[in-house]
Amino acid sequence: xxxxxxxxxxxQSEQDEELLRRLLDASAALWNExxxxxxxxxxxxxxxxxxxxxxxxxxxxxxxxxxxQQIERKNREAWRSxxxxxxxxxxxxxxxxxxxxxxxxxxxxxxxxxxxRSSGATxxxxxxxxxxx
Length: 133
Known about the structure:
This protein is mainly alpha-helical. The chain has one domain (14-127). It is 47% helix and 9% strand. It has helices at 14-43, 56-63, 65-88, and strands at 111-116, 122-127. The chain has a two-stranded antiparallel sheet with strand order 1-2. The protein starts with 13 loop residues before the first helix and ends in a 6-residue tail after the last strand.
């Protein structure tokens, strides 16, 4: 069983809120860059999906090297999960987060969700494409 810790982040000042937004934006940008590079490698028969650029130098100053490493690890887990589903014949040929949304409301978008509550608390979550067949 996996456990999930959830919490509200309440910035104490405008400076804290700006810092939080920068961290969230940098995290999302890093995930997207890694994912795009893996997707391009996946489409190229001569490339290796697991070989990606070094992002610690670029994002390490903003996020910290250990956070960059964790985001890379989580992205690798998502791709491994896709390949495992593909081997079982349950994948539709593309990673689920790579799918195109349907207009009938049958899919959810991949995005980082930032929501500021009336109390001033900022929450962060993420939704992934989920194609319903």
